[in-house]
Amino acid sequence: MYFKDISKIKYEGKGSDNPLAYKFYDKNKVVAGKKMSEHFKFAIAYWHSFCGKGTDPFGAPTLNFKWDYSSDPILAAKDKADAAFEFIEKMGFDYFCFHDYDLIEEGKTLKESEDRLSKITDYIKGKQKASSIKVLWGTANCFSNPVYMNGAATNPDFNILARAGAQVKMAIDATIKLGGENYVFWGGREGYMSLLNTDMKRELDHMGRFLTIARDYARENGFKGNFFIEPKPMEPCKHQYDFDSATVIGFLREYGLQDDFKLNIEVNHATLAQHTFQHELQVAADANMLGSIDANRGDYQNGWDTDQFPNNITEVTEAMLVFLKAGGVHGGGVNFDAKVRRNSVDAEDLFVAHIGGADIFARALLIADEIINSSPYENLRKNRYSSFDKGNGKVFEENKLDLSDLCKIAQESGQISLQSGKQELFENIINQYI
Ligand code: XUL
Ligand code: CO
Q1: Residue 285 CB-half CA count within 13 A
Q2: Which residues form the pocket of ligand 1, taking CB atoms under 6 Å from any ligand atom?
Q3: Which of 188, 194, 242, 361 has the most C-beta neighbours closer than 10 Å?
Q4: Do the Cβ atoms of 340 and 308 come closer than 8 Å?
Q5: Catalytic member of 39, 48, 99, 354
Q6: pTM score
């Protein structure tokens, strides 16, 4: 046992002072026709919680992981899996997400990596059988190894693209073996550092083809889940091709991938793209491509991906309005792609952070459900468009008016009265229900 001083986290309600209890996340509580656990499918991110040891560009690791002492990579990976499973069970979560080399250290050759992955996935499969813990999604880390410094599927060197192909094949195999429900592509270094040395069109064509053959391979091998692309505008590249939801949707449609691929929206990536989290969710939902969420938050002052645990109730409530109206996510869930600060060195800090994250989503869901069902919010929004529900507005929506018709209608109509957008009232309703 790695967390022997901590017992299973329970729901104790809003009045509880226990930092190791849920105040709002009541797993079995039904909201909008579904249990909270089904709405969210909360997952832990293997890389942040069990691999990242608190390094930053200026400092050495600060987190001493008790499962990271063996010099034998297989034993170290098994210890890590034991710690991860103990943690997930104690949190009362059902899922985790992983990169191939989060599970086990990469070998010196592809063959050695494949053998290692095979051993650790055997071990994890056994642990899954003994628990109810599932894989929300798997992915390949095609960005850390120096060979990927110029990208993976968009690398100008075909040999690197082929190597990325081998790695993605192995990561898909591991995801299928562990019963993964989805498979993610975050374009780690798929982008450019300088447009001067980059043939963007050629690189995007390569990426389109690469994703197509990855999909085909997974489908041929029985994978029934969704593929997700996770938009991010920059970091590590100056410009990343999967910039934001709208860009990715355009890309997927251009390369004929729109039926198999959906989007995994990460809060801090949205804000880096100068969008709100809510905006990115809405764009994905409107394209019927809202697949999953990477939950975290950025920092108002810092312009990089700080990956802090979510705690902004207004932001998450507005996001849950989009989420509920969209009927939730397609196949995915809510993965805490977040890390504790490097000075949060106590084992309990990891629990406290995830409890806070689950509670803010649960609280926001309850509030958003009430806003939709009991407040004037829905009607106010609908009424702004009421001129399209009747008369010429309706005829326009039926595509039966041309530009000359609009001209005639405008000339015949009398004085136009201005209609308030009521923004402050909308904002007050959100605040009132929080
Ligand atoms: C990086 C990021 C990744 C992806 C998976 O910003 O979010 O961890 O979620 O590769
Ligand atoms: Co992410």
Answers
A1: 18
A2: 99, 139, 184, 186, 230, 232, 266, 294, 305, 337
A3: 361
A4: no
A5: 99
A6: 0.97
